Each structure stands twice: as structure tokens, then as C-alpha cells.
Amino acid sequence: MYSTKEEMMENHLKGRGIKDPKVLDAMWKVDRSLFIPEDVKPHTYDDGPLPIGQGQTISQPYIVAYMAEALDITPEDIVLEIGTGCGYNAAVLAQLAKHVYSIEIIEWLAETASANLKKASVKNVSIKQGDGYEGWPEIAPFDGIMLTAAPPFIPFPLKQQLKIGGRLMAPVGMFNQRLILITRKSEEDFSEESLILVSFVPMKGEAEK
To answer: Which residues form the active site (predicted)?
Structure first.
């Protein structure tokens, strides 16, 4: 049985502890079917990742909502996303933030995401094709940074591009990955919180070295 959008909201999100009304509203507003290939559209609202071509996937709705809720985005926030993918996560973040800057290392994915966001009428996302390891220093500092691919450790340049009080969310590790939430307390002081176990594709580029 395929899940409906209503079942996604009630069972996969609210039923698993997603409570923030802003996040739930964002998940309802963004049409996930616009970000996936035709052959998997019947599975649009199933609670699992879906293939989007060439070994890449779109994250399951629960993880998208969980990460957005944990990052605690406000309407005035400027957010950096590392790993645009098909653009779905950026579209959700764009409902919560003032603007989302997103970097995608794979050229065809950056182009696909741009086209998908246009279809979804999302206008407050800027995409750059390149390696996200160094972040986007011309725009920094950011209120929030989210990685949607897993590095073996948090790249130092990304931590340095957080505002004081800013938050960074990333899956970390090669195998037993865990979501890590970092908050910048001062210029030199960062707190770190370990959250749930996850499974993301490895971060490519400089992070692989």
C-alpha cells in the first residue's frame, strides 16, 4: 500500500514525534512528487528514501522533518545547505528560512534541483555547483548550516562560517552515522550534541581525502 499525503503527516511525521507546527506546515506545502522521477511517483509519500537516478536518493520525509525541526530555523535565518540533491530538502528549508544557499558537487543534480525548485515555485533558494567542503564564504556567516551527505568529521571551514549562536546539523561517520548538532557559543567555543543514528551517502570531494 502506498501512503497518502495525509498518512505521511499523521503517521510518519506527527506519529514519530515531529511537533513543530512550522515544520509540519512546510512538509505539507512542499509537493514531494515534483522532486522525484515518474517511475517512483506512486511512492511519493512513503516513509523512505527514493532513487532519483545514478545512485542518488531523496531522503525520507521523517528525516527531512527531523533535521529541520532540530536545526530550529526562524523566518529571518540565512541557511547554508551542503548537498542540494534533487532540491526537496532545500524547498522545505525555504519555507522556514529567509533564504537558503545550497551547494551541490554533482553537476547534473545541481541542474535538476534548479529545475525542480522552479517547478515548485520556490524562489528563495540559490544553488551553486561545486565542493561544499569550503562552504560559501562570500555569503557567510550563516544562522544555520545543514549537511545532507556524511563527512567523516565536520569540515572546519563550515564551523567557522556559523554566526555566534548559529547551528550546524550533519550526519557524521562512514558506517554507523549519527546526526550531530553543533552550536557556536563564541568565536572559539562550540557545543556538540549527538542525536539519532542515520544513513546518508558519503560527502564527496575534499571530505573524502
So the answer is: 59
